[in-house]
Design a protein that fits this description.
Length: 410
């Protein structure tokens, strides 16, 4: 089934060389049928330069054998070679920075795994995913690749500046910078310069942000990981699954495999040359493809998923409310569903103390509904600071009774 859906899957034979490098932005759907493992070519401008010290031999030894039979002894020898080289990346998860979420999923995101993040519109899925990408990119040896079908790279950068103004996990809203404040700062400073007609001032964005006391620290924090957070504004028409596979292969090689992929969001990923009979079939192709990318490129993939119409009507969203839920449930390794805490509290809590219950409107319940490596149906809560596009990553297990609770025997 997988072979039929993915004709560009790498074969045992070496791919034919080509003079045209793959398009890193996926803007040409006509060229998406080439093999998923392109020959070595110059890294695109959107990718960081290769780091020879970090590029492991896995790129030249293990990848060609991904689709070839190996004895258990060969697998053990390859793993042994990696440990001897000091490459422990296959054994060490990447923490998302959200506690206690990391503890429940085995320490963080693991290579070859597909993680789904679902929730209703406006619940904070993009905020959570972008904050996780930021947390990973803050580590000096890690890269995050954020593929957004919803927002431009500039908008995501502005969101990150607002997030950095409250500096999670410290969270100090008194120094917080809202999006309107950021825009007003830039526009007013540029207008003053133009009115003064001072030709000596460059009037650059970085100069404005660096010289303003409210934006100087957020900019400094953002610059700590700016070279390791890679973003692309995807198009639901031409940024295909094959384009994502191609970009991931190039970036994984350039970063030595120290890469985590974020897709925002799954239902907008285009497919070509495959054709889907309906939306359900398309979602099946996409989720199978994202899982294949995680496996073949040895990376973690985190994808946001949208709810179907019935899910939007439900009092509490579950995995089965997501569009294409049967395929999503089967392919993913971890599924996290987000709900507003006030909406999913048992009525006894609301009626007993309605005033206290109002504070829960700013809290989001993260429920691990599927977890192949650990316990599922675990509820934890995180406070959302929506004006600053940030969660307080210091969460806790939910202590109150929620609607639709299921009794899980441990």
């Amino acid at each position: 089934m997988a072979t039929k859906r993915f004709p560009d899957e790498p074969s045992d034979a070496a791919p034919e060389p080509t003079s045209n490098p793959p398009n890193p932005t996926g803007q040409s759907a006509a060229r998406m049928s080439r093999p998923a493992m392109p020959p070595q070519q110059p890294v695109p401008q959107s990718a960081p330069p290769p780091h020879p010290a970090r590029v492991s031999r896995r790129a030249t030894i293990q990848r060609p054998s991904q689709h070839m039979p190996r004895t258990l002894a060969q697998v053990l020898n390859d793993a042994n070679d990696s440990v001897v080289r000091g490459d422990l990346s296959d054994f060490v998860p990447q923490p998302t920075g959200f506690d206690p979420l990391d503890g429940f999923i085995g320490g963080g995101l693991r290579k070859t795994e597909l993680v789904l993040l679902g929730g209703a519109q406006g619940i904070g899925k993009t905020i959570a995913a972008l904050q996780m990408a930021r947390n990973i990119a803050m580590r000096p040896d890690q890269f995050a690749f954020y593929i957004s079908y919803e927002h431009t790279e500039t908008h995501l950068m502005n969101r990150l500046l607002c997030l950095e103004s409250i500096n999670p996990p410290e969270i100090d809203p008194r120094n917080g910078l809202k999006l309107k404040d950021l825009f007003d700062t830039i526009i007013s400073q540029r207008a003053r310069e133009l009115l003064a007609r001072d030709g000596n001032k460059a009037g650059s964005l970085q100069t404005i942000l660096r010289e303003n006391p409210k934006t100087s620290m957020p900019l400094a924090r953002l610059n700590k990981y700016a070279d390791r957070l890679i973003m692309v504004k995807a198009s639901p028409a031409v940024t295909t699954l094959n384009a994502i596979r191609e970009m991931t292969a190039r970036l994984a090689e350039a970063t030595g495999g120290n890469l985590t992929i974020f897709v925002d969001y799954l239902q907008k990923v285009a497919i070509h040359p495959e054709r889907a009979a309906n939306e359900e079939d398309k979602i099946t192709i996409v989720v199978e493809g994202l899982k294949d990318i995680a496996l073949s490129q040895n990376v973690s993939v985190v994808s946001i998923v949208a709810s179907d119409r019935e899910g939007l009507k439900a009092k509490r969203l579950h995995l089965f409310h997501l569009r294409g839920s049967s395929a999503l449930d089967y392919e993913c390794d971890i599924a996290i569903i987000m709900n507003n805490k006030y909406q999913v509290l048992a009525k006894d809590h609301i009626s007993f103390n309605p005033y206290a219950a109002q504070q829960y409107r700013n809290w989001v319940v993260f429920t691990i509904e599927k977890n192949r490596a650990g316990r599922a149906m675990t509820d934890m809560e995180f406070q959302l600071h929506a004006p600053f596009f940030a969660f307080d990553p210091r969460g806790q297990e939910v202590r109150q009774q929620l609607i639709d609770d299921k009794i899980i025997e441990s």
